[in-house]
What we know:
The chain has 228 residues and is mainly alpha-helical. Helices cover 73% and strands 0% of the residues.
Amino acid sequence: MNVKNRLKRWFKLRFFITYPFGLFVLFFCSPTNESFNFGIWFVMLGLLIRLWANGYAIKTHKLTTSGPYSVVRNPLYLGTMLITIGFMILLNTSYAGFIFVVIMAAVYYRTIRNEERALGEKYGKLFLNYKENVPMIVPSFFRYKKGEKWPFSVRRIIENKEYKLFIWVINIAIIFRIKGYFLIDHESMDAKKWLLIALFIALAAIDIGGEILKWRKKRSKSHVSHQK
Length: 228
């Protein structure tokens, strides 16, 4: 993603709303043991749904109706909302978190409508039939059996860079857990906290290392191309 596209993505409405609220929770919200232990389950469920969905998602030239897309039209947004709700519980945000979730739900509803309008124009009756039989955001108990099907692929997760979200959502949860230990519980360092810090460093190293490898591979290809 080039700089122009990255900036365009960062200033989408849903991200633009998230930035100031992110600063608010960073400085004014901290988890308790109870809120963290409850909220993290929503976060993990949301991450797993997104991983599952990205293992099937083909976003450019096919209408995806496989895997979770056979029971809900927008599993990625469902996963994102569960992660959002999980963090609001985890961070013990009270009414501010509830208001944020409602605003984000409204923004995502608008985004979904715009995207589905485009899908309707692209796929016509195929998408209309899918839309009539598969719920928007609350999964159905019945699978949609029509449409082309294909298997789950880890490669798609990597290509869609979903692993990066997984890494940094977990790391953000670790940051707030450490903050809660020190600012709320006033605990001292022990083996559990060092383990969390080690996990944070390991996950960050995996992501940064992957980016360096991709950069070197791209640079190597560019060098070979110039030699030709």
